[in-house]
Amino acid sequence: xxxxxxxxxGRSVDRPVPLTDLKLTAQILSYSRSKGLFAxxxxxxxxIKPDKDDMRDVYGEGVTAREVLKENKVTAPVSVRAFPNTLxxxxxxxxxxxx
Length: 99
Hints:
Distance between the termini: 26 Å
Structural class: alpha+beta
Largest sheet: 2 strands, antiparallel
C-alpha cells in the first residue's frame, strides 16, 4: 500500500483522497486548500447535463451545448477560452511523458 504524502499528513479532509503516482493514473484525484481546487477524473458512461441558464449567460440566448462542443458553431468568449487552453497545455505534457 502507498504511503500517505507528507503534505497530507496531519490535515483533515472531508472527502476521500485516493493516492496516485506522478503520472496521475488514479481514476479520481482531488485536492483542495482554502484558496484552490484541483480535480482530475475519468468519465465512462456518464451523462453530463448542461445548465441552460449558464449557457445563456455565457453564450447568449438559444445557443446549445451541442453547438458549442460538437458542431463548433459558436466562438467561446475570452472569459471561457482560458480553461480549455490550460487543459490542453497540461494534457499535452502528460501525454508526452506517458510515451
